[in-house]
Amino acid sequence: MKLSGSAKMIRIHFGEDDRWHGKPLHEAIVEEARRRDLAGATVYRGIEGYGASSRIHRKHLLTSSDLPVMVCIIDEESKIQQFLPVLEKMVYEGLIAISDVEVIRYTHREHASRGDDAAHA
């Protein structure tokens, strides 16, 4: 897959306790994004945060308290737009935001090493 130039980034914010069909929501989103051949997805776990409820979520001494999670996905606009209705069904509580990004480089290590080999030849 080739991705360069203008693209869209979607960020989905929710709590780590959120689930989709019995599975952690972040796992379900990443698996669905991969199934739909989106360029890539990364899950971030926050150490503290709050959202629409204004309730602060943070780790307590022995237990977590629904720590914030963000899934970030980047791909061309048409694929992101096609994925939005799926996300809207999956994310019951949270925030979905889209922004413009400029892709500078998107490559697989195998391709990068070929370039390195050529430079050393």
Counting DSSP E segments of at least 2 residues, the number of strands comes to 8
| Beta-strand content | 25-35%
Number of helical segments with 4 or more residues: 3
Q: Please state how the strands of the largest beta sheet are arranged side by side.
A: 4-7-1-8
Major sheet, described briefly? 4 strands, antiparallel
Under CATH at level 1, the class stands as: Alpha Beta
| Helix percentage range | 25-40%
**CATH fold group:** Alpha-Beta Plaits
Describe this structure as you would to a colleague.
- There is one protein chain.
- The protein contains three helices and eight strands.
- The longest helix has 14 residues, at 77-90.
- It has a single domain, classed as Alpha-Beta Plaits, CATH 3.30.70.
- It is an alpha+beta fold.
- Strands 4-7-1-8 form a four-stranded antiparallel β-sheet, with helices on one face. The chain has a two-stranded antiparallel sheet with strand order 2-3.
- The chain is globular and about 45 Å long.
- The mean pLDDT is 86.
